[in-house]
Amino acid sequence: MRVAVEITLDKEEQDKLEKIVRSSLSPVRLAQRAQIVLMASDGMRNQDIAKALGIGRVKVSRWRNRYAQSGLAGIERDLPRGAPPQKVDIKRLVDLTTQHKPAGATHWSTRKAAAELGVNASTISRHWRRLGLKPHLEQTFKVSRDPKFVEKLEDIVGLYMSPPENALVLCCDEKSQIQALDRTQPGLPLKKGRVQTMTHDYKRNGTTTLFAALNVLDGTVIGQCQPRHRHTEWLKFLQQIDRETPKEKTLHLIADNYATHKHPEVQKWLEKHPRFVMHFTPTSASWLNIVERFFRDLSEERLRRGVFTSVSELIEAVEQYIAIHNQKPKPFIWTAKAKDILAKVVRANRRLSSKQNATLH
Questions:
Q1: Strand partners, 210
Q2: How far apart are CA 330 and CA 220, in angstroms?
Q3: What's the whole-number mean pLDDT along residues 339-347?
Q4: What span, in angstroms and rounded, lies between the C-alpha atoms of 202 and 198?
């Protein structure tokens, strides 16, 4: 029969343990362990201690033995739980994640990497978090290769940050192919404890194109919905801008390099209306046009979750959104300086060039 280890305490040890048991600041687990040791020093058997404290006999035996081996320090530290952490070759893990791809897939998952390295998926996940590796995510980018990028950048940012006197700066663009989408079944409305529901499938009821010009100074928007976005529709929109802006103001229009904006018929019209001055963004740099922010708000706030049974209903919704926006317009304030933007573009080009060179070699 196994005999429990004998516990003998001197006055100092007993005082420390009793203080731990009495103190309201002691952790519950530590106080219980101290009580086990005190009761063991009184000659009580493990099974009697377990019954008195309402715990298991094995637990009593464990902490009794720990105190006998290491003293007070033995019961202050928790026992290690579970299996020991699996060891991973960190260098190999980083190389595998960043330089290679799994068979038949574009990126690694925790399970695929774990199978490759012979460890648990949770181990891979823990090291990825520590190393800041996120193979399941990606970010899109586009660096402009426009040979006149610097010139166009400085021109447009200059209009934003220091607009000319007696002039209006208008950011213009088309939001094409806006779809009038109807849902195949009616959804349930938002209520307490339940989000709004909407079917994932839909019915197409036609499209429209929104031409918009955002006034950089006050944030107002001139809008026009048309069925297509050819140069003839662009000319109609320019004529609307001409009608709805003060005749004595010079108009600086910022637009992208879409062929419609540079059509010969458009050029002829602009020659007859010299107060219109065109400024084109660099290629692949639509983010320089502030009206894109307005388009984003329109999509998020009115279109994405909208239900439209016809194109006319869609156009009415867009026009209503613009009218409400113009009641209390708020301009988008441009703060980024041209030199700061250029520095970022230069860094991006250097990284891309170094990556391409490394790939070639």
A1: 175, 225
A2: 8
A3: 88
A4: 10
